């Protein structure tokens, strides 16, 4: 039997409706949620992501502005921009689009960014709060993964989860969320990575596999047990001369092989991706509630 498709777009639309009504309520109180995005350099994927975040803000009534800085920006210049946004009381949320061009230190930028305005949940303070079990803002992609599984009633509670990828933006925060002692969570989580020996010995036992490593169609049917849940986080551009843009987007899981093996699977595109933006909107409203003051 083919797997149930975990489509992200319908849920993302629902989240946008909820956020839009929260924004209306905040505006009535004199608070206009405002997000400032800092984009450094020419990374084409980053430009696309920032563009889609701007459009989403517009749809729900969040004010957004993007500071586009040249590739040659120095660390000191970037920290100055972030510091000014920290100090600007009209700005509630700040997002520094990652990755930064080579030579810039993202860790120092995140240490500088005011945790109260951290809409990505990437600052050390907010990552620490998540790990300790009292989160403020949570990284958008992991939060989106939980939202999509909850929305489609995927059995998450107490399951054995294997996450492939230990990045600070996906693997680590997702592990912290799933292992929480909380209803619907309580998972036993294994985080695998590029140095994991015999990956299939882990994925082959898992109830839920989250593929987040940035390797096109890496997860194959022979690596999983029938009936498992596959959450595909990967977004990879694969050269395709027949496509208008010259490339096709594929995930880290081989959808063609897995759709008849898994019980649930997220498509790429249209699975986890739309939820990442939805969670960003939710986080921005959260920061506006926390930092907001009548303007
Ligand atoms: P990253 O490059 O920071 O980390 C990749 C991780 O995968 C590393 O921990 C590495 O050890 C592990 N890995 C790499 N090859 C492996 C292998 N062969 N076996 C086991 N582990 C391996 O990546 P990231 O920023 O976490 O992103 C991962 C993927 O998710 C990318 O395709 C990215 O584009 C995508 N992504 C999607 C969204 C979304 O909204 N859907 C958001 C963030 C990232």
Which terms would index this structure?
Rossmann fold, 39% helix, 295 residues, binds nicotinamide-adenine-dinucleotide, alpha/beta, globular
Q: Which small-molecule ligands are present, each listed once?
A: nicotinamide-adenine-dinucleotide
What fold name goes in the CATH topology slot of the largest domain? Rossmann fold
Distance between the termini: 56 Å
Order of helices and strands: EHEHEHEHHHEHEHEEEEHEH
How large is the count of helical segments?
10
Number of strands: 11
Largest sheet report: 6 strands, parallel
Give the total of domains: 2
What structural category arises from helix and sheet content? alpha/beta
CATH class of the largest domain: Alpha Beta
Q: Radius of gyration, Cα only, in angstroms?
A: 19 Å
Mean pLDDT, rounded to whole units? 97
TL;DR of this structure?
By secondary structure, this protein is α/β, with parallel strands linked by helices.
What does this structure look like?
α2 crosses α10 (272-291) and α6 (140-151) packs across α10 (272-291). This protein has ten helices and eleven strands. The chain is 39% helix and 16% strand. It has helices at 8-28, 44-60, 75-87, 106-112, 124-132, 140-151, 171-178, 199-203, 255-258, 272-291; strands spanning 4-5, 34-40, 63-69, 93-96, 160-164, 188-192, 208-211, 229-232, 236-239, 247-250, 264-265. It is of the alpha/beta class. The model has no long low-confidence stretch (mean pLDDT 97). It folds into two domains: 31-116, Rossmann fold (3-Layer(aba) Sandwich), CATH 3.40.50.10860; 140-273, Rossmann fold, CATH 3.40.50. β2, α2 and β3 form a beta-alpha-beta unit. The structure holds nicotinamide-adenine-dinucleotide. Nicotinamide-adenine-dinucleotide is lined by residues 141, 164-167, 169-171, 192-194, 196, 199, 212-215, 233-236, 272-273, 276.
